[in-house]
Design goal:
By secondary structure, the protein is mostly helical. The chain contains 10 helices and no strands.
Length: about 210
Amino acid sequence: EEKKLKKEELSSLFDKGEAAFLELINFNSSDQAYIDLARLYMLKGRLDGDAKAYQKVTHLLEGKGAFSSIDQEAEAILLRGEASGSYTKRIEIFDQLTQELYKTTPFYGKGWYFKGINDLQQGQKFLRNLRKSFEAKALFDRAILAFEKAFELLKENEQSLAGLSLKCAAQAYFYKDDKDSRLQAYSLFYKLFNEHSDIFSTMKNRDE
């Protein structure tokens, strides 16, 4: 009963937040209100597993015209990518975010991280199909390049995500399942634990 009540209270808070942001958007087409509402939908999707919330992110941001700030534009692209349920659509979105145009924004490095996650997850799916093992290894190679790029971009200001990038690159090497790749994976873990212990210390669930 208490859990149900908390869920209802949370739902009420989401509804009030949505109404407030929509009012701002209708009143003055506030760019920040679009971003904040999209963040709210993303939070609802993560907490409730609500697929419709992710669809609202896509509908909201794809229907928006140009943003006045390059940072807001980059964040909108990132949110669209995170909300998308399509592997091929995410390729398109994260390819856009990792263009040089967005290099000065705080979301450029994150774009490379999510680009890697997209290929890593698709490669894991392909591994379950023996006929697609070659395609899986090609995706792991692409993911490794993206994660290593993300690490270099994030290691100064987004250390936890930088550590995750290195960890995911090591996982991609392990999934390739050959001797050289396993050695590369161990090398990356060594690099994270010993050469970048400051970054390792910022990571959650370090023992996994």
